[in-house]
Amino acid sequence: MILNGPPRSGKSSIAAAIQARSDDVWMNLGVDHFKAMTPARFQPGIGLRPGGERPDLEPLVVRLYHAMYEAIATHSRLGFNVVVDAVHHDAYSVPRQILRTSARQLRGLPVLFVGVRCPVEVALERRRATWGGDGYAKGGTVPDPVRRWHEAVHRPGIYDLEVDTSVLRPEQCADLIGSRLTDGPPPRAFPRIADLPAE
């Protein structure tokens, strides 16, 4: 299960709720864990934000995503359930096709791709609660990095399910996802993404 959305959208809380509410083993192999394993001089690593600000890091980001998805595939093939909080985008200095490549890596494995949506105002409120300040740029505008995340992360917008964490608690999202896994239909988003033409 891949949970894709901008920072502070609630992905980690949903992943934790899925782990807590299931009798099965769910391994969390999300970007936060891979980012934490990356040496400081290569940060933000896999969490590189949209905008093409660090083209020097982009080849490493491609390899880190490849490694993360290989780990996901290995765990799945060994019979583990996997939940991943991801922040996919392709707004690098040049298109990197990371989402499409990742989908191809998981061909033949059952993948539910979930879009985690959250209005930018709610994300800013969560940022304020965590780090203080008012969260806005000068003049009361949304800071460019936050705006770019919210614009880029949901492209191409092909999902099996979408949840809005501004109206649903993490446990409610986990229940909706669990129902989708149990009742179907079979997920189709990742095969569709894998077959997208290169940009």
From TrEMBL:
Organism listed in the record: Paractinoplanes rhizophilus
Record InterPro entries: CPT, P-loop_NTPase
UniProt-annotated stretches for the region Disordered: 179-199
Database matches in SUPFAM superfamilies: P-loop containing nucleoside triphosphate hydrolases (SSF52540)
Protein's name in the database: Chloramphenicol phosphotransferase CPT family protein
Domain of life assignment: Bacteria
Pfam families: CPT
